[in-house]
Amino acid sequence: MKILVIGSGGREHALIWKIKQSPLVKEIFCAPGNAGTARLGINIPIDAKDLTELLAFAKKSRIDLTVIGPEVPLDMGIVDLFEAEGLKILGPSQKAAQLEANKAFSKDMMKKYGVPTARYSVFDKIIHAQDFVEDLLKTPPFVIKASGLAAGKGVVIAQSIAEANAAIKGMLTGKLFGDAGREIVIEEYLSGEEASFLAFTDGRNIIPLASSQDHKKLLDGDLGPNTGGMGAYSPAPVVTPAIHDKVMVEVMRRMVDGMAKERRTYRGILYAGLMINGDDIKTLEFNCRFGDPECQPLMMRLKSDIVPIMMEIANHGDIRHFKLDWDPRPALCIVQAAHGYPDAPRKGDEIVGLHDLDDWKDIVAFLAGVKVVDGKLVTDGGRITGITGIAETMQAVIDLVYPAAHMVDFDGRQFRDDIGRKALGR
Ligand code: AMP
Ligand code: GLY
């Protein structure tokens, strides 16, 4: 088989690393890819948003299966476009991808089908939103979300009415997130511990992946600004067997059935971002793809061949009898980000030490914003590497991955020192 993976992050590097282990696969392409994917397959210099060129490439190269990393091409309708041409592709249709791309729609779906989530209201007028915060909610924190796609940055947790009013105005006037902010969701603030729950679905059957946990804030102790994710591990002990069962029934089952009822049959990876507080679960959001960096530890733990289940979903088949085998050992990924990330990442800093990790046992350096210039590896984005490892216990994997991450260096490198610590406390 020939497989095309779309995207250029650590997630896509991890997907290709896993896909390449399948005996079914002969050739792998990545568009546009990065310096990491180039070591495992062939990078094709086509942007993930250039659907016309991606389609032309897939047809010309007779790609058997296309796998999408990021949400934007899904929201643009890449699945509909490829399927109309008879190509096999893993992911939801444009109508189904609205579960991530349109938070107002997503919240309305959760409400309609009984998926537990924070109470909310949707606004497109500044005055109505500000009145709601001042007269009804009154006490901070206030959670204000751009309805559209904002690269993971569209949520403001305001600590005062003034801050809330500024966020409302910035979003609804289009200043903060462009058109993505012209409709907003204001919702109840939830406390608890977050976890990521991903599953494969064919539109009817749901095969969950192992649980995982992201670290969204830039700094230790969950401080500082939100990022795309500074590290992840799997499994997440906060997802106990009882919580797992509850999520399957109340979140995944209800949403997959709800989407089918709405004639937006959801196929692909369904990702629920959860807030867990004791026995209580609430859904913060749905994503329509693998998480980055959750994908990195998940791929390291997945023992089964990933290609057959992907192909079955792309064929609009039935995954009821698939079973995924997981390495029982925990895996952990530490993201190293560029100077200035997340606001203004600097590019062009030379990265040293990566090749030394090639010989490390149970460690893989998944690369994100890394390119080769004059034979040297240099930073080329916000998140740069995701050093990932697997070991007997959570403490052992922390003790393995941190020294590995310290082998890699570049100017202005930022990373958290506490990835995995929450799991140790449980
Ligand atoms: P989202 O993109 O909706 O997942 O939000 C991004 C991040 O904002 C989440 O991972 C949470 O850390 C935080 N967040 C979102 N909604 C809430 C909420 N209702 N209460 C508390 N924190 C939230
Ligand atoms: N790790 C969060 C995300 O992929 O959206």
Automatic annotation (TrEMBL):
The keyword Magnesium does not apply. It catalyses: 5-phospho-beta-D-ribosylamine + glycine + ATP = N(1)-(5-phospho-beta-D-ribosyl)glycinamide + ADP + phosphate + H(+). The keyword Ligase applies. Pfam families: GARS_A, GARS_C, GARS_N. It is an enzyme of class 6 (ligase). Its cofactor is Mg(2+); Mn(2+). Residues 107-315 form the ATP-grasp domain. Gene3D superfamilies: 3.40.50.20, ATP-grasp fold, A domain, ATP-grasp fold, B domain, Phosphoribosylglycinamide synthetase, C-terminal domain. GO terms for molecular function: ATP binding; metal ion binding; phosphoribosylamine-glycine ligase activity. PROSITE patterns: ATP_GRASP (PS50975), GARS (PS00184). Its EC number is 6.3.4.13. Belongs to the GARS family. This is Phosphoribosylamine--glycine ligase. The lineage of its organism: Bacteria, Candidatus Falkowiibacteriota.
